[in-house]
Amino acid sequence: MNIIRENKDLACFYTTKHSWRGKYKRVFSVGTHAITTYNPNTLEVTNQWPYGDICSISPVGKGQGTEFNLTFRKGSGKKSETLKFSTEHRTELLTEALRFRTDFSEGKITGRRYNCYKHHWSDTRKPVILEVTPGGFDQINPATNKVLCSYDYRNIEGFVDLSDYQGGFCILYGGFSRLHLFASEQREEIIKSAIDHAGNYIGISLRIRKEPLEFEQYLNLRFGKYSTDESITSLAEFIVQKISPRHSEPIKRVLALTETCLVERDPATYNIATLKPLGEVFALVCDSENPQLFTIEFIKGQIRKYSSTERYFEILVYARQSPPSVRKNKDL
């Protein structure tokens, strides 16, 4: 077995391998160049498959199960072999593995793209492309063809139509029903395709809510359970520069702490650009070389990077002194 030395583990899951010889515990790693399995007791590599050798990875059965199949090519021929694994984290594992779907040997799986409009946080309509992929939606900038953000099926709670917004529909997202509003003449096709992909590739069931929303309701409920004044009213604010791949230069933001959330506001309009529950914050990490740089890591894997002349430890000190909803997070 040739090991790819430059491969870096990105996401690891505790799994059970099912074979004719029995069941074995394995650490299943999704890496930069390959999928690798390790013996959990010794961390010795037991198998490794470059993405170019992988044919598919898919759930076994429909509904919320634990089993999935990994199919890969054997040698240089056309023969393939399928291995079965199981894990309690099947949706997360499949989502991470399918991020590398375009490197797979068969099909180079891509999604269908749709021209849409996104209702932006600035209350303007922006043209975007939505690509329905096996793992979720990719929101793409039509001018640069770059992915701006992704909406994983595992974090989607469902869809809801807007009755007074032509072609409008919302993705309910993030576990707290955050509403992301899009509009397209192909609304029904987009939603149906996403529901089919989520079931076939991730093994989860997504649904459309029976009762549509009106646009005014969307405006009042766009932050889901955190749309209340308590959740968006600042207790402390810090001027920061946000560093993001979406922007060629750092963007000025007001980073605010509320009773329950970490909120980014646009300093010119004071509109909320992003909102994250404090319970999802995993760690605040300072840069070892630049004292003005820091990152905020979230338990679902997202990372936000900022710089500020206001020292980041003031944010940390404030968070530790904040209400119980903040103090519950030990990393703060």
Automatic annotation (TrEMBL):
It comes from the Eukaryota. InterPro entries: GRV2/DNAJC13, GRV2/DNAJC13_N. One of its GO terms (biological process) is regulation of early endosome to late endosome transport. Pfam families: RME-8_N (PF19432). GO terms for cellular component: endosome membrane. Transmembrane segments: none annotated. Residues 12-311 form the DnaJ homologue subfamily C GRV2/DNAJC13 N-terminal domain. This is DnaJ homolog subfamily C member 13-like.
